[in-house]
What does this fold into?
Amino acid sequence: MRSTEEVVESLRQALVGAGVVLPSLCVDPVTGASEEPFALVDLGRCNVRVAERLASVVRGERPVVGTHAVDARDGRVGEVMGHVGGDVRLRPVGGGREWDCPKGAVADARPEEVMRARLRKTNHESVRG
It folds into this structure.
């Protein structure tokens, strides 16, 4: 049987691999110092966005809430805000009106696509004043 510290580190790596960071993840100091054979794992505190992403990962949703995706129908890049029925709800990079995209028309956005969308938004705003 692995030690509690090893299990916590394994969980940390799995969460990071899924795009979720729980900075306070640790072995509970009270049960870790007691005579209990199995210490408790303290998942710690996190903000609402991290909790929402964690729930999305646990539900097996793809793409995960909080990541960026491309609407293959028109090439728009958006942040995944949630899953509604058979659709993925996306919000434009930099904010704006959300739209629904069928799951079959959604692809993970590459970093350069997200950067291009951010640059496009910034350029558009600078032209408008």
